[in-house]
Amino acid sequence: MEFKKIAALILAAAMAIPLLASCANTGNGVNTRPAGDGGSTDAGDFASGDFDNEDFTFLFIQQKAGNKDYYGGDYLDAESLTGATIQDAVYKRNMAVEELYKVNVNQRLEENGDPAALLQTFYMSGDFCFDVIYAWGYKLGLCIVENYFADMSKLPHTDLTKEYWCPSAMEDLTVNDSLYICINDISMNKLEWAYFLFYNKQLAEDYNIETTLGSPYDLVKEGKWTLDAYLKMLSSISNDLDGDGKITKTDVYGVIGQSAYDLAYSAGVQLLEKNDDGSYSLAYYNEKTIDIANKLAETLSNNKYCKGYNEIWENADTSGFNDQWEYVRSFFATDHSLFLSGSAFLTGELRNMESEYGILPYPKYDENQEDYVHIVANLASIFAIPSTYRTDVATAGPDRTGMILEYMAYKSNELVLPQYYDTLLKGQRLNSEDDQLMLDTIKDTIHYDLCSMVGLDGITTNFHGVVSKPNTASSTYKRNEQKLIKQLNDFYMDILLLNTKEEGKN
């Protein structure tokens, strides 16, 4: 498909489409810091503005299970200093933003709503009493093609190359030079929900894991923590404690909740390849993927070593837990599993674990793979900017939004991140230098899976089928290839159309 020719046709057609979004008055600041200049980052280097103490509002669409906030976190607003480590840092950050820009930072909370339905209601009613949207990642991603969001790469006064904008995420989520969903250090979600491995040190000692197979920490440091090493380690432990001839959830086994999808991605498999014209091609069906699938099949399909969530919670009484997922993870905490696939969020659940646990990065494909890879859960909340700026605030607009987000992300990097990363995770929840080093390795290799973030479910489902069932991988892929190419091309065409609308507004 010749995308450039089609893009030209779309551009011509789009000029005739009335714009749905309108811009209110913008702020009066001037950008004083060129993008990517690498200069200092004190307040004097940021754009100036005075926004008359008007509201700057985050629409937080929060998802809860029981009394637990999954995938969001209290990172947007705090009313006062309370002595709580993270919340006090959020309060101090917001006060710095409010003082610099004479603005009132707050949040509008909508619990357990579907972002698509809520945003449609807001847009149809003209209720734009918010400046930034914060909600489950893939659910916001599904809304991109509805023209609900502005292109954040075009926001004035922002520098997306800065560490506090997570440049790897910006690259992963940018399509045709446009960015409609993103993350920065205002939220800790890219750290809190990047998948890695928990390691039960007590079971490792009891079953002489490190004596016979080596320390996984040493393997990581030496670049030898590979798929083969991990699979060998997790399949080295299987003990029928009750002697009933079966390995059930109350026995001892290698891992809970291990996904073939995550392992293949961390082994360097790319679902998509970006073409020179900005479009994408499918890239995951190749010899490397089939080799990975063959490595995974024998081990992950064997419930002597691997237990899935469904197997553990089936017909179980989970009433003593916040939810069924927490119930399943309790079997790692009570020494039934050597490994648990999870993220930093789960360290809160493991605070009372009697045995010592550690953390490890996901394994590489082989020793030649340059970096470890850690994918952020597609449910983790992420940011978007509404395509129509609010009209109830005179100073609202792209200038104000860009200034505030840039400075707020910077101050979060300075105030909130150290409290979460150094004080909470390293200081309270990880008790060895090895584990702290593993956390640094994970933090430095975070990525997002574009397909799972923007609703290309046909591709993600097909990829999972390929890597989990190598015997039928060829037919699984080829039977759906043309349909998947069409889905991918349709998505890209939708992005091109959004780009032309953005250009029309400007």
Folded structure, characterized:
The chain has two domains: 3-190 and 378-429 and 494-505, D-Maltodextrin-Binding Protein, domain 2 (3-Layer(aba) Sandwich); 196-375 and 448-468, 3-Layer(aba) Sandwich (D-Maltodextrin-Binding Protein, domain 2). The chain contains 19 helices and 14 strands. It has helices at residues 3-14, 85-101, 115-125, 137-141, 167-173, 189-192, 201-206, 209-213, 216-221, 227-234, 260-266, 287-300, 309-313, 324-333, 398-429, 433-443, 450-453, 457-468, 473-505, and strands spanning 54-65, 68-70, 103-111, 132-136, 196-200, 253-256, 272-274, 280-282, 306-307, 337-342, 357-360, 374-375, 381-384, 446-447. The strands form four sheets. Strands 1, 2, 3, 4 and 13 form a five-stranded mixed beta sheet that branches. A five-stranded mixed beta sheet has the order 9-6-10-5-11. It has a two-stranded antiparallel sheet with strand order 7-8. Helix 1 packs parallel to helix 19. The longest helix has 33 residues, at 473-505.
